[in-house]
UniProtKB/TrEMBL annotation:
GO terms for cellular component: plasma membrane. Keywords: Cell membrane, Membrane, Phosphotransferase system, Sugar transport, Transmembrane, Transmembrane helix, Transport. It comes from the Bacteria. The chain crosses the membrane at residues 96-112, 150-174, 186-205, 211-230. This is Phosphotransferase system, mannose/fructose/N-acetylgalactosamine-specific component IIC. It is a multi-pass membrane protein. It comes from Syntrophus aciditrophicus (strain SB). It is found in: Cell membrane. GO terms for biological process: phosphoenolpyruvate-dependent sugar phosphotransferase system. InterPro entries: PTS_IIC_man. It holds the Pfam family EII-Sor. Coiled coil: none annotated.
Amino acid sequence: MFIQCVMASLLGSLICLDRILIQSMIARPVIAAPLMGFFLGDPYSGLLIGALIELFWIDRLPVGTYIPPHDSLTAILITASCIFSSREIGHHFREIMAFSILIFIPCGYVGQKMESIHIQMNDRLARAALLCAGKADVNGVAARHLLSPVVYFLLTFFLILFFLLSGTVMTTFLFPRFPLSVLKALNMTFFFFPLLGIAVALNTIHLRRMVPVFCAIFLAIAGILEFFHVI
């Protein structure tokens, strides 16, 4: 498992580099998570997790000096840990996914702090590059320019590796010991997450009149499903 975690961490770090380099939107959770899932042989789980994480923080935009939670890091961690844990345990897919989301969501704020530190480091590198430019030191300017993505890659790699290993070990250790009541609660939580994501999306686009419509549609579908379940 350690080698798989290292490989997943390398891929995740490369994907996250898109946040500061090309910025082609590959690092968005809805793309990053399916890519990780495809690499690990389970693109469906990646697509589902990516869509959920994309909705969770869709209202947190990097406007001005605001640094949003690191949703790319979170989506990659949840996807990899969910796939590794499901293979190790062999069942409880919904419950494992819900549990992975719950334990890795805080990692988005750890990544947010990491990006804040990286931005402060970039300020110092920019000032150092200006001094090198004043001395006509082209190599010094190039070295400080390249140092930024290298440091970002290494920070992301070690963060992913640490949290992925610890989270996967914790999941595989705890799940066989969970009582049935906890598994049922996690199963219900799995179905709650899409509703939470849709609520965030509706609030973001300010379609307040659509909230009652969504609630009515949800209740109607729930009633129909319950009716057929009873029959």
